[in-house]
Amino acid sequence: MEGMLKTGTMLRSAGKNDYTVKKMLGQGGQGEVYEVTCNGDKYALKWYYKHTATPRQKKILERLIEKGRPDDCFLWPCDLVKRKGASFGYIMPLRPGHYKSIVDLMKRKAEPSFYNLCKAAYNLTRGYQLLHKAGYQYRDISFGNVFFDPDTGEVMICDNDNVVPNGTLDGGVYGTPRFMAPEIVRGEKKSSRNTDLYSLAVLLFYMFMLNHPLEGKLEAKIRCMDIHAMNRLYGTAPLFIWDPDDDSNRPLPGYQDNAIIYWDLYPEQLRALFTKSFTTGLAEPAKRVTENKWLETFSNMMAGIIICPDCHAEILYDRDKEEKGLPHVCWNCKREVKVPSKIVIGKNRIIITSRTKLYMHHINNDFDMRTVIGEVMINPNDRSKWGIRNVSRNTWTYYKGDGTGVPVPPGKAATIAKDAKIDFGEITGEFV
After folding, report:
1. Closest C-alpha to 81, from 28, 17, 34, 7
2. Burial class of residue 414 in the structure, from the number of CB atoms within 10 Å of its CB (0-12 exposed, 13-18 middle, 19+ buried)
């Protein structure tokens, strides 16, 4: 497949690096993407069409390259490439081939575990949070710009060449149909951090429910999805498919089954955030769910995986269900599953299994879900005795049920026992 650049073409960058075009990878609305090499390393090059290679686009790229990426998950522009009298493009890291798109997830070509799905959602949300903290808006969050590893939950966010400082009102990309906030669809507002939050909620709903949050009976009745129908469905009269006060747009059995199957599969904590996103959040942009709320929920979901002892399916712990005295039932074999012991640390509830790890976030609420500070261990001489090994740099204090305190230095373990507590220094956790 040949494009604007032929195989073997040599290009010199603004950073005085030489890149060789190897092959064309694909094309989109703004330009073509190629695999290139420089000093033996592989990169991706986005080369703009003549009509999209504007001075404004070049200025955006120069600013992004100068400031650098807000997180490693972004395939961020890192070098500018030009040809005399022609267009220009930018260099970015090359996405590994084993990463899948959200479209692959929806088509069941990617089957992550519930844990890795929650982790992907967490990493994705964390990436956009760091982007916003750096003062940017993404403007075009959709499932076409996100890739993830189904086996690890790691994510990569591409197409970052339209990222601009928040509050920038200089035109350009406003979003992707079905993902744009209602106020953009209606032509009332331009893109901002608040419209990013709406698009993020739609993307997350797709990831967990494999359905659009506004596409229920009302969408199924549309015979011609023209601009007028889309404006009504997504802009002037949007209605959440699970709106608690209006059931006129419920998913249609036999047509929108994914939304019906998956909605009850997830804990109330997640469903409540989606409900707020597509009820209050439809009309009041300033009250949309923030990244912090999503991250708190996803971290608890990752820490709340219960394995069914009969069929080994993953079940998500639901605090609301337990508080109401309702049983946890395996979605696969339909048998009731006992909730294991937990350690409660502030807002975090961590289910105790042989694979459980405590992360820095659990004690600092800093959203660091990479640094492990504790891990469950089983006594090799007595498998009925479990503990949490301190793998942090700090000494903990373990309090037995009678209040007796014992130091737990790094490398040692605290016994898991009902009503016992661990003082981590910043916060205390209790076994329940």
Report:
1. 17
2. buried
- Non-local (6+) Cβ contacts of 232 within 8 A are none
Residue 210 φ/ψ region, left for φ over 0, alpha for ψ in the -120 to 50 degree band, beta for the rest: left
Q: Please spell the DSSP secondary structure of 337-362, one letter per residue.
A: E----EEEETTEEEE--TT-EEEHHH
Q: How many CB atoms lie within 10 A of CB 314?
A: 17
Checking if the pLDDT of 171 tops 60, the result is no
| Residue 286 DSSP one-character state | G
Kindly report, residue by residue over 259-302, the tens digit of the pLDDT. 999 999 999 999 999 999 999 999 999 999 999 999 999 999 99
Q: Which CATH number fits domain 10-93: 3.30.1490.20, 3.30.200.20, 3.40.50.300, 3.40.50.720?
A: 3.30.200.20
Is 60 in contact with 77 (CB distance < 8 Å)?
Answer: no
Q: The tokens of 387 are what?
A: 């503990």
HSE-up of 102 (CA within 13 Å, CB side)? 26
- Going by the DSSP 8-state scheme, the letter that residue 236 receives in this structure is I
Query: What's the token pair of residue 214?
Result: 């506004």
d(CA 246, CA 281): 16
Across 53-76, average pLDDT: 94
Torsions phi, psi for 290 (to 5 deg): -85, 165
Question: What average pLDDT score do residues 331-344 get?
Answer: 96
| CA angle, residues 277, 246, 204, in degrees to nearest 5 | 25
Residue 249: what are its φ and ψ, rounded to 5°? Answer: -125, 30
DSSP codes, 147-181: EE-TTT--EEE--GGG-EETT--S-S----TTTS-
CATH number of 296-431: 2.60.200
Q: What is the CA radius of gyration of the chain?
A: 24
Helices (H), ranges, 221-342: 227-231, 257-263, 268-277, 280-283, 291-302, 319-323
For residue 418 the two structure tokens come to: 């009902």
> 100-295: what fold?
Transferase(Phosphotransferase); domain 1 (1.10.510)
pLDDT interval class at 87 (50, 70, 90): confident
Domain ranges of the chain: 10-93, 100-295, 296-431
Q: Which two tokens stand for residue 283?
A: 């009309």
Rounded to an integer, the average pLDDT of 91-101 is 95
pTM of the model: 0.94
